[in-house]
Amino acid sequence: MLRFHVLRLLTMAHIQLQYQLIATGITKGFYRGWSLVSSQTVTLKQLGFPNQIGVPGSLIKEITALLQIKHPNIIELMEVVNSKEQTSLMLVYEFMDTSLTSFMRIHPKVMKNPQTIKGLLRQILLAVYHFHSFNIVHEGIKPKNMFIDPATNTLKITDFIWPRSISNSIIEDPYEESTFYYKAPEILVDKKQVTTAVDVWSVGCVFAEMVTGKPLFPAKTEFNQLAKIFSIMGTPSEETWPGISGIYPYLHVYSNCKPKDLRKLVPGLEPAGIDLLNKLLYMDPKKRIPAIKALEHEYFQN
Amino acid sequence: EDQNQSLINHELEDPVLDLPLQNDECLALLIVKESEQCVGAIDYLNKLKNQNLYLVARQEAVDWISKVHAQFNFGPLCAYLSVNYLDRFLAVYELPKNHPWMMQLLAVTCLSLAAKIEETETPPILDLQAGESRFVFEPKTIQRMELVVLNTLKWRMQSVTPFSFIDSFIGRLDDGVQSHTNRRSLI
Q1: Pick from A79, A94, A109: which residue ends a domain?
Q2: What are the pLDDT digits (tens) for A18-46?
Q3: Which chain B residue lies closest to A88 (C-alpha atoms)?
Q4: CB burial string A139-153: b at 16+ within 10 A, e below
C-alpha cells in the first residue's frame, strides 16, 4: 500500500517539476521532498478524493485559514499543488525532522530538566491558543504531531489537515494505537462534542507524558479508553459534570472510580505543574481551562 | 473607557469569541486584502464591455446561481461569494469559447464552493443541479473543477466582500458612541 502511494507521488512530482521526492516515512503519510524552485527541503503530504463527492468544505476552510496562519510554533503550510489530472492535492510544508516522540526517546536527559518541559509546554499552548483564536480545532494533538528543532528546542505543531476531514481518503488514516490515548472524554462519549476544549485535554496528556516519558492513559483499545480515563480521573457524575447523563446514557455501566492523586502518577512534577495538569485534564469540558488562561498559570511564572 | 476595558477582558477569557477588533488597522487590512483579490479586474471589465456574447454568458451563469440559491434558501453571503468566485476566476482564466457548457460547469462549481464555505449544511453536488439546467455534470467532473477553481483563486476563499466592510463600519459607529475620541476622529 505504501509503495503505491510513493509511486503516485513520484509521478505527480515529476509532472509538476517543482518538487522531487527524497525520502519516505518521516511519519506515515508524510514524505520528504526537495523544492526545485526554492532549493529547500520540504515536507509533502498527498490527499485524494476517491469518493467524488467534491472537495470537503472542512478541508477548504482549513487550508484557507492555514495559508494565512503564521506562527513560530505552527508548521507553515507553504503551498497547495494540484495534480495534473486535477484529482488530488499535494500539501507542501516547511521541513520538519524530529517528532516529540523521537525527541523524548533520543534525549531522555534533556527531558529530565523541568525548564525544558516548561518551555515546550509553553510553546504548545501558544500554538493552541493561536489556532483556537481562528476558531480552528486541531482534534489530533499528540507527541507524533509535534516537531522539535533540537538546536533551538523550538517546537512546531503539525497535521491540521488530517484525513479525518476526508472520508476514505486514499491515504488511509494512519491508525495507530496511540491515537486515542489523547482523546478527550467528551468525544469518546459523543463525536459531536467537539470544542476547543478537546485540544486542551490532549495538551494535558502530552504534558504528563513529557514528565514521565509514558502515556498517562494507555488503554488497549479505543473502546477501553473511556474506562482508562475514568479509572484515573474518577467516574463522572451529574455533580462533577452537569449534563453528562444527557450525552452518555451508558454511564452506569462503568464502575464508580474515585479520582487518583496525579502527584503519584506524575512523580517529579512541581506542585504548580500538578495544579495546571489537573486544570488541563478537567473532565467537564465547559470548566476545562482555556489555552490562554493556562499560559497565565503560576507554573509559568518562574 | 471602562466599557472598552471590560470588552477586552471578556475576549481574553473566551478565546473562541476573540474576533479581530474593528479598528483602523483592520479596515486598512481589509482594503489591502480586497485589492489583492482583484487580479486582472480591469481587463476583465473591458472584456465584459466589449464582448456581448461573453456578457450574456456571464449573466446566464449569475441567473442560474441566483435561481438555485433561492431554491435552497442559502444566505445572502453565499450568493455574493459564488459570483465573486466566478468573476475572479474569469478574470484570470480564459474559458474556451466554443464550449458553452464550461460556463455552466463553472457556475455549479462556484455555488458548490460558496455553499461549503458559508452554509452549515450543503446538499450533495448532484442535487444542486436538480432545477432546469441545460447541462448536468457528473460529481467527478465538478470535483475536478472545484480543484481547478481553488487553485486558480489561490485558496483565497474567505473573500473580502461588502459584508466585511459593513461589519467594520458598524463597529466604528459603536466605537463613536462609546468613546469621545473616536467620535471626533469620525467627524
Answers
A1: A94
A2: 666 665 554 556 678 888 777 888 888 87
A3: B147
A4: bbbbbbbbbbeeeee
